[in-house]
């Protein structure tokens, strides 16, 4: 900076303040700036002038300060004020030695502090920035993506809104209002919880509507675009598809009543027949094969669509009508927390509540009531763990155990004995039993559920490995592509610590009072007429209270144990074992489960949420929020736009290692 002549009449303005002579400038330390600073934070660990504590002082110096202003009138940190040269009454006194002044200023403006501050600002900006339609605009500009294959979106369990169609007097206030998926649901629960539970429950014997109630799935794109206003589900996907040219003539959402078992979806609602007809109409109208995009489901039932229930599609129907299946965060081998929901009405979300919140929840909607409701939703049983110990591990080890494991996920349920302290030193083979593997946990859950639930599971679901070669070869003419897109890197509940309580009557008799029980006439073998009968003296309760042992939190354990939950890798809801095992191993190449050699592409997305965005931002991989993530939306648009070749294999988790430890033979 060139020297200036000293002003004859100093102005009170800071801009006219006298500057040091050339020699003073040469002696003056160079101010800390991002371009010339190389000093690191480690050199400023003490609270000295120029440290982090002086940022406030540094900012205040940028304001106009009158020449000869006494230092006592300037807001400074105490150690800064004491560091001023003695006798210098005016901080900007023209006579002050500028070397002393500069050394009293902050000596560090760490670039990392500056970058950190800018990062916070940028994060806040991106969190508040509207990202609607941006992915569609980007892929359209970069790759020329436009509407090509028509697409049908298939929502996951609990995603579709449910409407009341009952005309009974008690139901008329909610006629055609959603009892699931809007604020009306909250109002209905608060006004009459028992009536709402009755309406949402499925008849345990018929698997269809309970007497006096009629609930149906909402239809169209709005059925699952949002859950409650402001909490989007499929909305971002719909927006981006619309950006590249899609509308209701080429895009639809196949909403369904997720409470029903798949078989009864066809019996009551003709769901698969209607889905088949929609696919054929889209194929005819758009002159292209259809892409199916599902979220959080085991798989789209192509065989029932083509041939089941008298559909008459023929053996080549899938080949002629389906281009690809996009499997987003699919629960291909089940969900761990589904098992706890059926057993005790709990999951991680409930056991990690604040004690006050847990007390309120228990008083308003107890574990017993929640478990009863879950069991009255046969469709949710599709999330039951599949594959047994061959996939999920045995009592000694599991495929996804950490390398330094002190416990194993193979012990899916571990029961602490009553009275034993919940600390690591007290928990041993003598104080923890039984330890149940997945093979043992399934029957255990069924043993502690009503007979009606057991019959429903037996008639609708299978949890083992299909080994019938003849049956597996029926898929040999299916040549659609499969894309597995899911997240990882977020702690996910994988196995549990449990406690056993006293025995109690199961829910089939729990409403009876005293020594009386209800005799169900729907079973002819009972030989009764729905009357109330007296119980016999030896009619002991067979059900038992269970709850997740939230007292067990073991610091330093591997896998991590917190509030009775053992955590593993996943998307926050589904373990990576379920998300990816079939995609990278079971279906990869020409296997017994993929006799046609269908091409299977897997893309994993690392969970990288933005702290200020409540839904995680553009790089989230959370189970639900991933539907708004940029990488996922980009992949969906490329596949639907006829450029599936741009979606390539991308593995970031340890799923390949896990599958090598599984028993596939």
Automatic annotation (TrEMBL):
<feature type="region of interest" description="Disordered">
    <location>
        <begin position="1"/>
        <end position="55"/>
    </location>
</feature>
<dbReference type="GO" id="GO:0008374">
    <property type="term" value="F:O-acyltransferase activity"/>
</dbReference>
<feature type="compositionally biased region" description="Low complexity">
    <location>
        <begin position="10"/>
        <end position="21"/>
    </location>
</feature>
<feature type="region of interest" description="Disordered">
    <location>
        <begin position="395"/>
        <end position="427"/>
    </location>
</feature>
<protein>
    <submittedName>
        <fullName>Unplaced genomic scaffold supercont1.13, whole genome shotgun sequence</fullName>
    </submittedName>
</protein>
<dbReference type="GO" id="GO:0006629">
    <property type="term" value="P:lipid metabolic process"/>
</dbReference>
<dbReference type="Pfam" id="PF02450">
    <property type="entry name" value="LCAT"/>
</dbReference>
<feature type="compositionally biased region" description="Polar residues">
    <location>
        <begin position="33"/>
        <end position="47"/>
    </location>
</feature>
<dbReference type="InterPro" id="IPR029058">
    <property type="entry name" value="AB_hydrolase_fold"/>
</dbReference>
<dbReference type="InterPro" id="IPR003386">
    <property type="entry name" value="LACT/PDAT_acylTrfase"/>
</dbReference>
């Amino acid at each position: 900076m060139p020297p200036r002549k000293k002003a004859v009449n100093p102005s009170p303005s800071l801009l006219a303040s006298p500057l040091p002579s050339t020699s003073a400038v040469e002696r003056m330390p160079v101010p800390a700036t991002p371009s010339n600073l190389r000093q690191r934070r480690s050199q400023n660990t003490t609270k000295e002038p120029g440290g982090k504590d002086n940022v406030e002082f540094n900012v205040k110096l940028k304001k106009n300060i009158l020449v000869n202003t006494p230092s006592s009138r300037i807001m400074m940190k105490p150690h800064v004020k004491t560091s001023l040269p003695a006798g210098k009454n005016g901080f900007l006194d023209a006579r002050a030695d500028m070397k002393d002044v500069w050394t009293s200023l902050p000596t560090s403006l760490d670039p990392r502090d500056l970058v950190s501050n800018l990062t916070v600002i940028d994060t806040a900006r991106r969190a508040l920035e509207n990202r609607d339609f941006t992915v569609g605009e980007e892929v359209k500009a970069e790759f020329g993506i436009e509407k090509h294959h028509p697409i049908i979106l298939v929502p996951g369990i609990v995603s579709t809104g449910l409407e009341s169609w009952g005309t009974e007097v008690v139901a008329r206030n909610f006629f055609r209002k959603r009892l699931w998926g809007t604020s009306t649901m909250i109002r209905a629960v608060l006004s009459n919880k028992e009536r709402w539970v009755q309406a949402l429950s499925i008849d345990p014997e018929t698997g269809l509507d309970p007497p006096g109630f009629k609930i149906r799935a909402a239809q169209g794109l709005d059925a699952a675009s949002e859950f409650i206003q402001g909490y989007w589900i499929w909305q971002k996907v719909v927006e981006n598809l619309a950006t590249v040219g899609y509308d209701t003539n080429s895009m639809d959402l196949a909403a369904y009543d997720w409470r029903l078992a798949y078989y009864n979806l066809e019996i009551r609602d003709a769901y698969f027949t209607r889905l088949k007809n929609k696919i054929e109409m889209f194929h005819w109208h758009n002159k292209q094969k259809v892409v199916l995009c599902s979220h959080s489901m085991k798989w789209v039932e192509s065989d029932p669509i083509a041939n089941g229930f008298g559909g008459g599609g023929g053996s080549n129907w899938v080949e002629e009508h389906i281009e690809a299946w996009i499997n987003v965060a699919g629960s291909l081998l089940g969900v761990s927390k589904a098992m706890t929901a059926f057993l005790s009405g709990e999951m991680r979300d409930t056991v990690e509540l604040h004690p006050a919140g847990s007390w309120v929840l228990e008083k308003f909607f107890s574990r017993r009531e929640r478990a009863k409701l879950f069991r009255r939703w046969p469709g949710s049983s599709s999330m039951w763990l599949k594959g047994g110990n061959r996939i999920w591990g045995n009592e000694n080890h599991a495929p996804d155990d950490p390398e330094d494991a002190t416990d194993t996920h193979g012990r899916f349920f571990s029961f602490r004995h009553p009275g034993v302290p919940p600390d690591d030193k007290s928990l041993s083979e003598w104080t923890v039993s039984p330890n149940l593997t997945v093979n043992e946990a399934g029957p255990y859950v069924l043993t502690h559920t009503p007979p009606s639930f057991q019959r429903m599971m037996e008639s609708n679901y299978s949890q083992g490995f299909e080994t019938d070669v003849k049956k597996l070869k029926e898929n040999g003419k299916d040549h659609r592509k499969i894309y597995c897109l899911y997240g990882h890197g977020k702690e996910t509940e994988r196995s549990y610590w449990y406690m056993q309580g006293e025995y109690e009557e199961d829910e089939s008799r729990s409403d009876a009072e005293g020594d009386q029980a209800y005799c169900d006439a729907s079973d002819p073998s009972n030989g009764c007429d729905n009357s109330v009968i007296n119980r016999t003296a030896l009619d002991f309760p067979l059900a038992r209270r269970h709850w997740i042992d939230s007292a067990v939190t073991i610091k330093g354990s591997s896998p991590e144990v917190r509030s009775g939950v053992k955590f593993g890798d996943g998307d926050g809801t589904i373990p990576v074992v379920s998300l990816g095992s079939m995609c990278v191993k079971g279906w990869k190449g020409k296997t017994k489960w993929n006799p046609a050699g269908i091409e299977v592409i897997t893309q994993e997305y690392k969970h990288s949420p933005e702290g200020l965005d409540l839904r995680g931002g553009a790089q989230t991989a959370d189970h639900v929020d991933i539907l708004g993530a940029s990488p996922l939306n980009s992949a969906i648009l490329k596949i639907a736009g006829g450029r599936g070749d741009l979606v390539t294999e991308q593995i970031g988790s340890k799923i390949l290692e896990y599958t090598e430890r599984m028993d596939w033979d």
